[in-house]
């Protein structure tokens, strides 16, 4: 499998705090890669470095080399173009306070698509791909804030898909959702990996075991172990990984 | 004993609260009692829509002054709203901390400057400037509108900035994550989300502009005729009252009070709009 994103010798500081230490990871294309580990271990921080959302945080300094298809994302690449190619779904569903249609159309409009027919098509395809079309097709003009949490999160996934990204970052996408919504999102992720590269941060080890192809275990800003999900969960090499996945801490 | 003390304090608070209610009620009664009979005598239509104001001939039509107030307020909004909005976006999203303190102090100070000082500023700076620009009298609709625009800035900026800041960061981040620029995120996601607060600020600004007297009197020219363009003088309702109240008597005096009634109704409508907007914000 070829690598979609590569992270080499990456270090990240929040002012004085050394949040990520010597991270080396290769993210395979059209796979689901899960980041697991206890709170504060840096997995979300790493995720946000992959589409440069960390740029918003004052005092955040990144060294090392992160590449998307071989291109240095902290180099000459336009940050808005990077974020179009590397989409993100947040922990808390964050639909914009506008209609369902406008939520989805916002991204394509941002990138210069204004034809009504084209937008209609993108909206439908994105909602279908996010497995929510049937639930919302009759109320596209209604406010997105009136939807349930699980629907909102799938809407946010649809919104991310609408700009045709290559990579989808998911930051604990199900932590605010009930079990039924969670399983819908998980099914969706498995479906989406046919066409997208997915990187998912999760607190839920069963979730990582269920749906991911590769898993990276983080502890105190370091990648302790990175392997095929099956291997990592059945035959962890590192004692700390074993302790974590068997529930001895974290 | 303790109970008595408590009841006593309750009474004090109640009386204090009553003062403001009573004041508003008295103003209402005075205005309407003083103004309505005059309106009846002149004829409601003739008074509101009459285009001539000639107190010497007992002709009292305040339509020119109503239009004067509306025009001057409209133009001042056209100048003040964009400037105020951009300022509030700057302060909420772009401003470095050091500059922010200076900006905020300046805006607070602006809100506290007496209107007569704004009038002076207009009189010694903007009027001569207009004069040399147009070659005619510098006391014009535009002059008054510029002065008013400056005066409503602090109201608009403070309200808009507060509501911009209350928009959750997650909207802004969500937009950036889709590849939108900072500007697009602010103007197409954050600003619309703050809409009702921003509009409330603008409406408050309208209230301030339409009720402003001293600054306007000093720079507007005050001719009691229909507004005839940006570079012509005009007279507002407030100016009409303050200019003539000193020597008016009988029906003339009552007509001025009736002008106050019309102004009062305008302010009433504006306040109603604000409270409706606020209610909508709470429900969302």
From TrEMBL, chain A:
This is Phosphate ABC transporter ATP-binding protein (PhoT family). Its main location: membrane. It is a peripheral membrane protein. GO terms for biological process: phosphate ion transmembrane transport. PROSITE patterns: ABC_TRANSPORTER_1, ABC_TRANSPORTER_2. GO terms for molecular function: ATP binding; ATP hydrolysis activity; phosphate transmembrane transporter activity. Signal peptide: none annotated. Part of the ABC transporter complex PstSACB involved in phosphate import. Responsible for energy coupling to the transport system. The keyword rRNA-binding does not apply. GO terms for cellular component: plasma membrane. InterPro entries: AAA+_ATPase, ABC_transporter-like_ATP-bd, ABC_transporter-like_CS, P-loop_NTPase, PstB-like. It is found in: Cell inner membrane. Keywords: ATP-binding, Cell membrane, Membrane, Nucleotide-binding, Phosphate transport, Translocase, Transport. SMART domains: AAA. PANTHER family: ABC TRANSPORTER I FAMILY MEMBER 17. It comes from Frisingicoccus caecimuris. Transmembrane segments: none annotated. The keyword Transport applies. Residues 5-245 form the ABC transporter domain.
From TrEMBL, chain B:
GO terms for biological process: phosphate ion transport. It is found in: Cell membrane. The chain crosses the membrane at residues 12-40, 60-93, 105-127, 139-158, 186-210, 255-274. Residues 66-274 form the ABC transmembrane type-1 domain. Pfam families: BPD_transp_1 (PF00528). Keywords: Cell membrane, Membrane, Phosphate transport, Transmembrane, Transmembrane helix, Transport. GO terms for cellular component: plasma membrane. GO terms for molecular function: phosphate transmembrane transporter activity. Its main location: membrane. It is a multi-pass membrane protein. NCBIfam families: phosphate_pstC. Part of the binding-protein-dependent transport system for phosphate; probably responsible for the translocation of the substrate across the membrane. This is Phosphate transport system permease protein. The lineage of its organism: Bacteria, Bacillati, Bacillota, Clostridia, Lachnospirales.
């Amino acid at each position: 499998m070829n690598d979609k994103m590569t992270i080499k010798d990456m270090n990240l500081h929040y002012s004085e705090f050394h949040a990520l230490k010597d991270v080396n990871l290769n993210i395979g294309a059209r796979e689901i890669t899960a980041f697991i580990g206890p709170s504060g271990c840096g997995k979300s921080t790493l995720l946000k470095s992959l589409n440069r959302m960390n740029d918003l945080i004052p005092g955040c300094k990144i060294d090392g080399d992160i590449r998307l298809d071989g291109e240095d994302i902290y180099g000459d690449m336009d940050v808005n173009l990077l974020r179009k190619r590397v989409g993100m779904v947040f922990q808390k569903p964050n639909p914009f306070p506008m209609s369902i249609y406008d939520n989805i159309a916002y991204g394509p409009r941002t990138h210069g698509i204004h034809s009504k027919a084209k937008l209609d098509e993108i909206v439908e395809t994105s909602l279908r791909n996010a497995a929510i079309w049937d639930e919302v097709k009759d109320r596209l003009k209604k406010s997105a804030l009136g939807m349930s949490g699980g629907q909102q999160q799938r809407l946010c996934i649809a919104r991310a898909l609408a700009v045709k990204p290559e990579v989808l970052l998911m930051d604990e996408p199900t932590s605010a959702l009930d079990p039924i919504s969670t399983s819908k999102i998980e099914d969706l992720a498995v479906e989406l990996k046919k066409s997208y590269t997915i990187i998912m941060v999760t607190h839920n080890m069963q979730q990582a075991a269920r749906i991911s192809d590769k898993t990276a275990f983080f502890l105190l800003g370091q990648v302790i172990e990175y392997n095929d999900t099956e291997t990592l969960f059945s035959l962890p090499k590192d004692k700390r990984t074993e302790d974590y996945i068997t529930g001895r801490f974290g | 004993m303790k109970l008595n003390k408590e009841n006593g304090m309750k009474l004090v608070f109640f009386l204090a609260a009553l003062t403001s209610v009573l004041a508003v009620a008295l103003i209402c009664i005075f205005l309407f009692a003083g103004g309505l009979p005059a309106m009846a005598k002149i004829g409601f239509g003739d008074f509101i829509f009459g285009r001539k104001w000639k107190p010497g001939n007992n002709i009292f039509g305040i339509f020119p002054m109503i239009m004067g107030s509306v025009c001057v307020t409209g133009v001042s909004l056209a100048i003040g709203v964009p400037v105020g909005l951009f300022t509030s976006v700057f302060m909420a999203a772009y401003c470095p901390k050091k500059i922010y303190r200076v900006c905020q102090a300046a805006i607070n100070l602006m809100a506290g400057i007496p209107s007569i000082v704004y009038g002076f500023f207009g009189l010694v700076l903007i009027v001569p400037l207009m004069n040399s620009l147009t070659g005619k009298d510098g006391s014009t609709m535009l002059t008054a509108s510029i002065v008013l625009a400056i005066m409503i800035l602090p109201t608009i900026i403070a309200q808009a900035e507060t509501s911009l800041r209350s928009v959750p960061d997650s909207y802004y981040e969500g937009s950036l994550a889709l590849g939108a620029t900072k500007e697009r995120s602010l103007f197409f996601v954050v600003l619309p989300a703050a809409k009702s607060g921003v509009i409330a600020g603008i409406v408050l600004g309208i209230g301030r502009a339409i009720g402003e007297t001293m600054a306007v009197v000093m720079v507007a020219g005050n001719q009691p005729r229909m507004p005839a363009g940006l570079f012509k003088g005009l007279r507002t309702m407030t100016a009409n009252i303050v200019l003539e109240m000193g020597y008016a008597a009988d029906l003339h005096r009552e007509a001025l009070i009736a002008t106050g009634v019309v102004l009062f109704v305008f302010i009433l409508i504006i306040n109603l709009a604000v409270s409706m907007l606020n209610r909508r914000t709470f429900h969302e």
